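Q: My collaborator sent me two sequences in one message, no labels, and asked for predicted structures for both. Can we handle them in order? The first one she listed is below.
A: Yes, handling them in the order given. First sequence, followed by its structure tokens:
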Amino acid sequence: MATIWSAQTGIWSDPTTWVGGVVPDPWDDDVVIASGHNVVILPSYYVGIANGHMLTVQSGALLVVVGGLDVFYYASLEVQGELVVIAGCSIYVYDDGYATIDGGAIASIEGYFDLDYYAYLNIYGQMTVEASGWLSAWYDAYVYVNGGVLSVYGHFDLADYGYMDLYGAVFSVESGGVAEIGGYVYGYYYSGIYVYGELTVDSYGYIEAVYSSEITCESSGLMSVEGYLLVADGGSCRVQGPVTLKRSSGFDAYYWGYLSVESGGLVDSFGYMGIHYDAMLSVNYGGEMRVYRNIDISGQMYGGGKILMLRREGQIRDGDGNDLFKLNQAYGFGQQRIA
């Protein structure tokens, strides 16, 4: 075992790139790309880091993946400088492998970044999934964003018991970006989930925003929920674009949680919705909710916009399930039943 340092800018497979003129074998060696050096993994060349070894890209250094890079068996990739994955190329982290984007570091994913089987991705800096890029976290993979930013212009998939925790962090689905959440997303301590593109919460998906965190569907965004959303402890969901809560979905606001349908916002609610205790539902002027089933409200309501009950079976109920308004006995002029 040795630690192999870069000697100059160059190609990974070229011995002159490395101190001592030896191409590193990350199955047996730790590797450091030194500050000021750019190293490129060429097409059809794959580097595998394993057995607890580490590849470090120092501050001021750049690693460009034009081939492939695997990180597994407790090995780790630490980016203190910059990482670029070219379109069509890949980084694969799996079997307890780790990848870390440090504070001040930048990762640009134009190709594929896959996490599988208890893999870990820690983001303290900035990771951008470009329009051609894919970030996938499956099979108990874990994405941890602490004070960092994850921006998706391409595709993000979180599924099969994948987890993402946000601590004072930003996760944004940008215009043209698509995120599919089939796992679990937790936003803590002033984190923000911002949807300018398209976000889908699948039937097994879950998003929670607590401790002054927020979920925002921007005016250009589109949210479709088959799973479950929760806002609590000062968390909020702000709707400025269209949000659809499908029949299998659930939405709960607890303990000063806040659902705000703002001007231009539209919520179509086919599923369960509960506003509990000290939580608040605010449908502001120019905002609209269309309810096909029921709303359970034991918290506060604030108006100015519209709540439309589109089926007479649908009811506005209190937290104990008692009807607050009788909507199935509505008659119009001349005692003609209209609902």
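Q: And the one she listed second?
A: Here it is, processed independently of the first:
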Amino acid sequence: MIHGRGATAEDIISLSQHFFVNEFSIVAPQATNYTWYPYSFLANPEQNEPWLSSALQVLKALTDDLVKQDIPTQNIFLLGFSQGACLSLEYAARNATKYGGVIAFTGGLIGDRIYQENYKGDFSGTPVFMGTSDPDPHVPIERFRESAKILEGMNAQVEKREYPNMGHTINQDEIDTVNNLFFKYGD
């Protein structure tokens, strides 16, 4: 679980109480100074270096560690909100494989434009949920849609939801949809 700008690992972990994940291990890294990278996700990636590469490396190290603990990638879920959603999507697209799922609450792929050359691999049908407000003050709806299209082109099964004037938050429909898509077996 990847927190957003200005938030903490504890903040994003608290979201897990709304999901049917009692049998799951929850891992949530903490960004230095409460941010994964200093500028907007829409900035040229070079402006967000070396922080962006460092943040992506944190996710890679966590994923590699889980795999070493005999948790295959198809049992790993990536979940983030806002800056954490952008980072989760970017990491997944750069390291596409069969994951348990990718959940992005208000996010898109990182950069002043889509850098298709960064995205390699095949999601092999990985389910992806993307939800956002239309409009959102931080994530343009066009980038949200374009990001979903890129993931679909990499064989992800994308479920996207756009909520009129929701604001920069997570709503109950998103929680319910994620529970139904990913955590069906529940309590």
